Amino acid sequence: MTTATRGAAREAAGGAAPSPELIAAVLAPGARPPRPGALSASLTFGWRAMLKFKHVPEQLFDVTAFPIMLTLMFTYLFGGALAGSTGEYLQFLLPGIMVMSVVMTTMYTGVSVNTDIAKGVFDRFRSIPMWRPAPMVGYLLGDMFRYTMASLVILTLGLILGFRPDGGAAGTAAGILVLVAFSFAFSWVWTMVGLLMRTDKAVIGVSMLVVFPLTFLSNILVKPETMPGWLQAFVDVNPIAHLVALVRGLMDGSVEGDAVVWVTGWGVGLIAVFGPLTMWLYNRK
Amino acid sequence: MKGDTFMGKDALMSDDHPAVETSGLIKRFGDVRALDGVDLTVPRGAVYGILGPNGAGKTTCVRVLATLLRPDGGQARVFGHDVRREADAVRTRVSLTGQYASLDEDLTGVENLVLLGRLLGHGKRAARERAGRLLEAFGLTEAAGRQVKNYSGGMRRRIDIAASIFNTPDLLFLDEPTTGLDPRSRSQVWDIVRLVVAQGTTVLLTTQYLEEADRLADRIAVIDRGRVIAEGTPGELKSSVGAGSVHVRLRDAARREEARGLLARVLGADVVLEAEPVALTARLTGASDLNAAGASSDLNAAGAASRALAELADAGIIVDDFSLGQPSLDEVFLTLTGHPAEDAGGDTEQEAA
């Protein structure tokens, strides 16, 4: 490589060629900063998730249009048949449909993880000396924003349609908070699935198999008392059913201690099992 | 841990471990042994090339050394740190530019670099400042605000390398840094590699091109089916293979035998008659006296060719066309292994990704 060709190359690029002097200058050794803490690294990944929303706003479609569709569909489809009137049914349905929308949205965590791995950006993250779970926690922080957004979209629509929570503003806010926190825990299942599957289609396929039974075979759409005994037995242990009971209770202003224990137990259990599994897979990829 | 993160150039010059040291390194993917007992020693402060065809195990080797894959057997040390047990210590000293841009394509160039800077522990302002300087140095200031997915291949490669030197690493892995690049971008990458090495960073690069290894690397390891089959300086390697070849096409097929004798005498080389009745090829051996001066083999091949052409002209043999050929990777492989370079296990490298 001669100076002549190098000069010609720079000319052809219209000045957009690398500058040897500047590269030499940036390479000069400087003090390396200490590694970031766990929180700082996680928040940085959360920031990355927010940047992605900014550049690819379409990915917020599933937390805006999709919940609106679900709410309208089920309110007007089942309202008359199940509760006598849509207004009456909405009072029962809204907290549940909020849970259903958000839980369905959690599936996309796995898709994001899977897509990133396929693109190679994970290599970069994995070769940085930092708190290992930070990228995963970062996804979940970004996703908590999505969950909150989906919840607020549904709440707003519900209020417009006539939903009046007896638990008031505080109860409603507490309900959304519990929902978002539980979804954070539940999403660790998807980070694991995202690392396990070869393609994003497979991630969606597996996620559907889990999410559909958990959300439909629950107390979201109908009262479990109307179900056959074996199905009631499933609903009794279904974590989503307990989550719905708690969120509904908070919004109604009548919380059952049972539900609090179940939801906390499931939340802690999910993180305790799927968090380490995720990290084990992540370290072995 | 704190000691590692603060380690500067002075500290690392004082220990005398080689940049990379492996012995009997093994990595399996199912039944395939992607690495089948790799022994490597990469000295500090130079460019080390790993040359091999697709599926030879180059990528796997680099990924093991960069702590992205765990080896199944053998030893691998980077600056004396075991890649399995002291992965974080290794990570503070190395960085990797993979075959595929390891950046977030949805984010802009500057966002990618700032993100990286923050993850490396820089404050917001310091991260932004250094990101700006890197983008400028790599000729990417104008593209800083564009999403990386809209970058050309050459720009991607540059920002990827810029990302890899956000903290100046002691060892930089470049996995096929110029595969798929146009000639101009390729020469830019070569320039960058030289600059990085000039600043004291050791570079370990993989390539499928003998020319690239020859131009950049101080030492080369040839790898095939997960094993190192030859190692040495480019000169040593090429002299074991031959310094290249001179292809000649004559006007008059009747004088080919005469030309053959003449070329064999002048070049001290094997001369092969091609299928075309007017064509013949002299395979230059690196050990011939033409190479004794130790000049680069390009010059030697050219010198040999001009001498041969002059002799042919003196003898009244008219040459219609001639060309010089470097030994290709295929020739290197054929000589070293007795089998041609083949895409043995393209899948192996895929699995590594």
TrEMBL record, chain A:
One of its GO terms (molecular function) is ABC-type transporter activity. Keywords: Antibiotic resistance, Cell membrane, Membrane, Transmembrane, Transmembrane helix, Transport. It holds the Pfam family ABC2_membrane. Its main location: membrane. It is found in: Cell membrane. Belongs to the ABC-2 integral membrane protein family. Residues 58-285 form the ABC transmembrane type-2 domain. GO terms for cellular component: ATP-binding cassette (ABC) transporter complex. InterPro entries: ABC2_TM (IPR013525), ABC2_TM_bact-type (IPR047817), ABC_2_transport (IPR000412), T7SS_ABC-Transporter (IPR051328). This is Transport permease protein. It comes from the Bacteria. The chain crosses the membrane at residues 60-83, 89-115, 136-163, 169-190, 202-222, 259-282. GO terms for biological process: response to antibiotic. It is a multi-pass membrane protein.
